[in-house]
Amino acid sequence: MPNRFPNRLAALAAACLLAAPVLAQEAPRWRPAASAPAPRSEVAVAALDGRAYVIGDYNGATELLVFDLAGERWSRAAPLPHPVHHAMAAAQGGRIYLFGGYVNGWSASGEVLAYDPAADAWTRRAPMPTPRAAGGAAVIDGRIHVVGGSASGGTNSPAHEIYDPGSDRWSPASPLSTPRDHLAVQAIAGRIVAIGGRRDGEPDRNLDATEIYDPATDRWRAGAPLPTARSGTASAVLGNEVVVIGGESGSRTFAAVEAYDPRTDSWRALAKLPTPRHGFGAVTWEGRIVTLTGSPRPGGDRSGTVEVLAP
Question: Which overall architecture, per CATH, does domain 26-310 show?
Answer without folding.
Answer: 6 Propeller (2.120)
